[in-house]
Amino acid sequence: MEYSLLCHSSYVSFQPVKNKLLVYCIMLSLWAYMLYCCIGYCSTMPSFMMESTGKGTEPEAELLMKTQAGHRGTVTEPDRRGPKALSRDLLNNVNEADSRAEDWDESKGEQRTSEESTATGVVNGSETKKLPQAIIIGVKKGGTRALLEFLRVHPDIRAVGAEPHFFDRNYEKGLEWYRELMPKTLEGQITMEKTPSYFVTKEVPGRIHAMSKDTKLIVVVRDPVTRAVSDYTQTRSKKPDIPSFESLAFKNATAGLIDATWSAVQIGMYARHLERWLLFFPVGHMLFVSGEQLISDPAGEMARVQEFLGLRRVVVEEHFHFNPAKGFPCLKKPASNSKPHCLGKTKGRTHPNIHPDVIQRLRDFYRPFNKKFYHMTGQDFGWD
Ligand SMILES: Nc1ncnc2c1ncn2[C@@H]1O[C@H](COP(=O)(O)OS(=O)(=O)O)[C@@H](OP(=O)(O)O)[C@H]1O
């Protein structure tokens, strides 16, 4: 009895302390949870990923490390085709060693970001990986990287940095594989990717439509003549021994017959490719961004893109700084003294001088295609 009384009295005196302790514990847990959520959220915030301007330009891979987290595998497969097919590819400029190398660097960079975020223990439960609701489908050398990086500044956009090539090269891997490549997003954020070869690959419109008929499609187009030279310049940077642009562009130089089977030429026949897309998507599901305007008026072009995606206009004039040495707009943080960030050396390569007659012949070749393209899109891109 005495014992139980003693116990009771000590229990009564200990009770308020115990209650207080309990309250402190709950408060501490809440605090820790809030802190954890905050850090998790911050990890999803976009950051500038482009390299510093000036001479010692940082490779894109490094810059990608500074961007959003997410697992992105390298999408390259060993080439099991015979030497004949490979040499034809080389001529056709579809053996994209250059672009694959860039992809590899990019995904390497992104993987590191992913590792970094795991190391800091940042995992946010409210984020999930979703299939992209919007895709930059082309065109190769149109300015697709610049557009994606400008978009990544927007807090409501999360994009995979490397080109997944799901709908053209990796389709058999399935949608779950594709989804796994995507960064995690919060409710309301838009998942995006860019793979410029989609626009010209026959099977892709149907495949994207099968994933979702509501997918928003963005095509960055550029004067097809300059685009062809840019494409050739990229291939030549990796394989300096390829034949001259002139000899590849003509089927018969004396007759001035353009070789429309050469991919550098074929990609620029935009109207032809667009016809295939319009079998699956209404033109209103597609936005055509002018590659030229993206350089001369990035904020204006970004306003169109943000509106098309149903986003607040966040990326504005103050985010851009035109770098005269590079000849391109670079990204900067508004109201900050930090250095603007530009794309890497593989963007904005010096093009070789092509004989004016060849350029003129190409202009003549593209004119009817361009006219048709303007008509189909309701936009005059002013290339002629
Ligand atoms: N802001 C900015 N900075 C650097 N480069 C810019 C920019 N905006 C557009 N461009 C042009 O983008 C061209 C490369 O296009 P892509 O990124 O679509 O190329 S790729 O298909 O992904 O290889 C690249 O082509 P080249 O100049 O021929 O190298 C650039 O002209």
UniProtKB/TrEMBL annotation:
Signal peptide: none annotated. Disulfide bonds join C330-C342. Pfam families: Sulfotransfer_1. It is a single-pass type II membrane protein. SUPFAM superfamilies: P-loop containing nucleoside triphosphate hydrolases (SSF52540). It is found in: Endomembrane system; Golgi apparatus membrane. This is Sulfotransferase.
